[in-house]
Every structure is written in structure tokens, then in C-alpha cells.
Amino acid sequence: MRATTYSESWPESWKTSYPYDLLEVFGQTAWRGYAYAYANRRAAVFDLIARIARPGARILDVAAAQGNYSLALAEAGYRVTWNDIRADLVDYVKLKYERGDIDYAPGDVFELGFEAEFDVVVVAEVIEHVAHPDRFLAKIAHFVRPGGAIVLTTPNGRYVRFNLPKFSDCADPSLYEAVQFGPNAGDHIFLLHRDEIEGLARGAGLRVEEVRLLNNVLTNGHVRTGLALRFLPASLVRGVERLTAHLPEPARDRLNASFAVLFVKN
């Protein structure tokens, strides 16, 4: 992936994306909790994809923003289609492109016209921004061929620091339609709980193949651990991450901030 040089002449969406690129792919560690958490999510997504799809498979990356998953997957030999509602990011992604097979399909995911043609759809940190997660997942499933998969990451609603509403407790999600699709963490609408995932999957014609909990309090730099991350060796942070991923269920649910879920289409 080609490194970029910041320019004051860039569109605002490019300027907003650039600091995340520094943390996600270009090695900056100023916000270590974010960098660790992103690296864990990315590793989980790529591992789950590798389990079910070989290079050459067709992958749709939904709401892919600055395209860091899309570009890396293309470089790994997958045939990738990038999507985001912000069409002006296409040229920003192209600025970083070096090699691989990647197409661009900007637009609202609910209006995309794909027909069961992808082996895998990646939905990373998106569903929490949608007013109707059930309809959203069903729409995503429509893009997947039978036997294909969806790899999804999202914040874990049971995490000790989160207090947003549970989707299944909301009587009228349409109240949130006007504020959906916001790109920032402050734009989260619902946070899913693990006991909601099976129901959402059934409604979309999917089955849950695997659920991974990841990104604990230390990894994220939460509860005043952010300062400690500046001094702790990465091996120790990763060791604590492995430990909390295997705790008994109640503790694991409360101490890990993210899910990675593998769905397979029936």
C-alpha cells in the first residue's frame, strides 16, 4: 500500500481519513489503544476470511471508508469491490493503491444492485451505525452466494464501558433513521449483544459459524490504562489480550469491547 503525504488542498473527507491511516497502516502509535484494537480486529477479519476463501475469491468490502482492508485484501490476491457512501473517497483509496484486483462501487448499501455474487462480504464497524441492523444484515446476505460468508466486526454491547441501547429493546428503530450512517464512534446507534446475533442471523438466512470476543480494557487503553500502553511491551499487551479472550463467559463479555463474527449463508 502506497504511503501518502498530507495536503491542505485535499477534500475534507481525505483530511479526516489520513490520521486513521497513520494509525492503521503506517505505524504511528500516538493513540496506542486505537492502534492495538484496530490491529486485533484486522487480524481477526483476515484470519476468518482465510479460513473460508482462498485468494481469487470475490470480496465486497462494505462501508470501507479509506479502503485499508480493501487494498490489503487485493494485495493478498482477492478480487475486491470497495464500497462506501462517500464517493469522494474513491480517489483517496486510489492514491494508496499499488497492486491487486480492486473495483469501486460507491453508494448507499441499501441501493446496491449486486445479486448473490460474492464469496465473502466484509462488514467492519458498520452495523452499529444503522437504524435497522436486521434489515441491514438481510441486505448484506443478499449479496452473498449460497455457502458464502459474511465477516462482521462491531462493538460488544455488554462491554463494561458501553451504555448505548440494545437493538432488541428498541420498539421503534425508525426513530434513528435520520442519524444513521454517521462515520464516527459518537454516531453509534445500537450496540449488539451476543444473545442477539443468532436471531439476526436466522432472520437473514444465515448461520453463525464463529463469534470471537476481542479488545479488552488494556488493549483499548480504557479505564486509565492508556498511559500504561506507552511503556508496556507489545508482547505483554498481546498476552493479556489472549488471556481475556478465554475467560469464562460473564467476565469475557464484560471485559472485551469488540466482536468478530463469521456468518455463513444457508
What does this protein structure show overall?
- It is a single chain.
- The chain has 266 residues and is α/β, with parallel strands linked by helices.
- The chain has helices at residues 12-24, 32-52, 68-75, 90-96, 133-142, 194-203, 217-220, 234-244, 249-255, and strands spanning 58-62, 79-82, 101-104, 118-124, 144-155, 206-216, 256-265.
- Strands 3-2-1-4-5-7-6 form a seven-stranded mixed beta sheet, sandwiched between helices.
- Helix 5 (133-142) links the parallel strand 4 and strand 5.
- The chain is globular and about 45 Å long.
- The model has no long low-confidence stretch (mean pLDDT 95).
Q: Indicate the structural class.
A: alpha/beta
Classified in CATH, the superfamily is Vaccinia Virus protein VP39
What spatial order of strands do you see in the largest sheet? 3-2-1-4-5-7-6
CATH class: Alpha Beta
Task: Tell me the β content.
Answer: 15-25%
Cα-to-Cα separation, first versus last residue: 35 Å
Shape: globular
Layout of helices and strands:
Blueprint: H1 12-24, H2 32-52, E1 58-62, H3 68-75, E2 79-82, H4 90-96, E3 101-104, E4 118-124, H5 133-142, E5 144-155, H6 194-203, E6 206-216, H7 217-220, H8 234-244, H9 249-255, E7 256-265
Parallel strand pairs: 1-2, 1-4, 2-3, 4-5
Antiparallel strand pairs: 5-7, 6-7
Q: What is this entry, summarized?
A:
By secondary structure, this protein is α/β, with parallel strands linked by helices. Helix content is 34%, strand content 20%.
Quick tags:
266 residues; Rossmann fold; seven-stranded mixed sheet; alpha/beta
